[in-house]
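Mods, move this if it's the wrong board.
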Amino acid sequence: MTKVRAVAHLHSEWSDDATWPLDRLAAAFRKRGRSVLLMCEHSRTFTPAKWSEYVQACAAASQDGVLVVPGLEYNDADNVVHIPVWGDVPFLSQTPDIADVLTHTREANGIAVFAHPWRRNAWRRFDPAWAKDLTAVEIWNRKYDGWAPNREARAYARNLGLPPFVALDFHGARQFFPLAMELTLAGPATRMTVEDALREGDFEPLAFSRSALRLTSGIGGLALAAAEAARAVAARTLRAALKKRG
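Not the wrong board. Structure tokens:
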């Protein structure tokens, strides 16, 4: 058995709203002790041919002890519900029906995660019938939840009977943060063993190299939530000042 630290939900220059090349991402996370990158490009600019090219590009970028695993993030027509998908799943179209995404992913033995359920209240659109086709729920998305896990998302995942997932939603350097998924692999790190671990639930969400779940409650969780609230207020104040100035 092999344990590896993976970072999940990463966007590269292959997405329409990110700019980092795959090799730069691999080098940056290698320095941070991560050996698996669970990529998650936006489907909205992809085609079957581009997906095939991208899978090859991820394989080429997998060097020097870092494995780059290709994945796509599908969204519904008005960009509310987002589902990252990994595995040997054919390209499904740029903005497919979410129920179809989940059905096709299950039929292909792939992995599907409900991303940032509190962004734009995506959870309100969730069909309970989808739960059987999901692998996990993001309870902490660095881009949207900031420095602290989303307690409502944690309770939501528990109610659905689904494992918790932590993700960076990386688009740029602001999303660097000590979140990781620790995977237990049945052998060396390959795309197959990583996807098998995700599929079987052989993973643990980490924050600061310890279980992320400890920060969803208790004194530590309250302190981190307070820090995130202060950070969010400071960020809004700065944006308002910059907007007024310019």
